[in-house]
Design goal:
Layout lengths: L1 E2 L6 E7 L7 E7 L10 E11 L1 H8 L10 E2 L4 E8 L13 E4 L2 E3 L5 H4 L10 E2 L11 E5 L4 E2 L6 H19 L8 E5 L6 H10 L3 E6 L2 H10 L3 E4 L6 H8 L7 E4 L4 H10 L5 E4 L12 H6 L3 E4 L5 H12 L7 E4 L4 H10 L5 E5 L4
Parallel strand pairs: 12-13, 12-15, 13-14, 15-16, 16-17, 18-19
Antiparallel strand pairs: 1-6, 2-3, 2-5, 4-6, 4-10, 4-19, 6-7, 7-11, 8-9
Pfam families: ADH_N, ADH_zinc_N
Protein name: alcohol dehydrogenase
Family: Belongs to the zinc-containing alcohol dehydrogenase family.
């Protein structure tokens, strides 16, 4: 093995002891030691980590697939590689490199899904902060072929949110079949994923109709490049208002980042013929109810878009590093994670929250 600096035996970490249990901040969590790393594995010392709605679902255990417990959550981490497992061959990263840890921690890279660029659905996939411990700790055990190099030109705190929220919306827009000048509607536009989607869509030459509620979110998305805005709490007929705002026909695509079943149901009604519904947001318990007659006769396509692969991550980071996308975030300490979860649950967090491990 090779190491960058002395590795402590214990660390600070946020742990969910069991499904539905309260979050516990521990100072004595064991640190994976360099001599225990297998070939292809690495140890990353975290600088910061973003907080995602998925982390809240993992902590509550309210998804159809339960997370492991005890669990260290988190999957938007940026840090420095401080150890690499002995006998690792042709590692794409080296000691001292700044890298990101994403939702997809590892995959086999050899199955049909991986070979076709769908690494994120690999049947042998490991998921940070869900099936393996994640980034809410000072050190994280990871995998050299799946950590993402962070380019120059972007700070670690900003890069953290790009690794999940940015990659997720970038890939969904990329595969939405929209061309330059097409309309795209973004329900949940003022949220953590949504405000990044506004910018990626604008950078790709699309016309953005943002949907959310509240003056703060309106001001944010209009500043970031949205062409039009609808407050879903103020409208009396959301479907009609969306169609009226998009040439009377409806948008060419909808990227649903809102974690509500209602947002999905309405999309079939307001999309123009030939439109694409990109399913991204993951409600805890909801079904997608689509009118079959109009889905067929309007030639509507419904596509699930699940995070992104290694190439998607590099592309999303590159766009942000070149200044085309800016993540709006506030920084807190790891000890503020519980109150952050409460804010996510109430839906009153604008932008993203990033936990800085240097803050106490």
């Amino acid at each position: 093995m090779s190491t960058f600096e002395p590795i402590p035996k214990t660390m600070k970490a946020a742990v969910i002891p069991s499904t539905g249990a309260s979050l516990v901040i521990r100072d004595d969590e064991p640190v994976p030691q360099p001599e225990d790393l297998l070939p292809g594995e690495c140890l990353v010392k975290m600088d910061c980590t973003g907080v995602c709605h998925t982390d809240l679902h993992a902590a509550k255990g309210d998804w159809p697939i339960p997370a492991k417990t005890p669990l260290i959550g988190g999957h938007e981490g940026v840090g420095i590689v401080v150890a690499i497992g002995a006998h690792t061959q042709d590692s794409p990263v080296k000691l001292g490199d700044r890298v990101g840890i994403k939702w997809l921690a590892d995959s086999c890279l050899d199955c049909e899904s991986c070979r076709k660029g769908l690494e994120q659905v690999c049947l042998k996939g490991k998921y940070s902060g869900f099936t393996v411990d994640g980034t809410f700790s000072e050190y994280v055990h990871s995998y050299v072929r799946h950590v993402t190099p962070i380019p120059d030109g972007i700070g670690s705190a900003e890069a953290a949110s790009i690794l999940c929220a940015g990659v997720t919306v970038y890939r969904a827009i990329k595969y939405s079949h929209c061309g330059i000048g097409d309309w795209i509607v973004l329900p949940g536009a003022g949220g953590g994923l949504g405000h990044l989607a506004v910018q990626y869509a604008s950078a790709m030459g699309l016309r953005v109709l943002a949907i959310d509620t509240g003056a703060d979110k309106r001001d944010l998305v209009m500043k970031l490049g949205a062409e039009k805005w609808i407050d879903f709490k103020e409208t009396k007929d959301l479907v009609k208002d969306i169609q009226d705002a998009t040439d009377g026909l409806g948008p060419h695509a909808a990227v649903i980042t809102a974690a509500t079943g209602k947002a999905y149901e309405q999309a079939i009604d307001y999309l123009r013929p030939g439109g694409y519904l990109m399913a991204v947001g993951l409600p805890a318990k909801a079904s997608l109810s689509a009118d079959i007659f109009f889905t067929v006769t309007k030639s509507i396509s419904i596509l699930g878009s699940y995070v992104g692969n290694r190439q998607d991550a590099r592309e999303a980071l590159d766009i942000a590093a070149r200044g085309k996308v800016k993540c709006y975030f506030s920084t807190k300490s790891l000890s503020a994670l519980k109150e952050t979860y409460e804010g996510l649950e109430k839906g009153n967090i604008v932008g993203r929250i990033v936990l800085d491990f240097k803050r106490q």
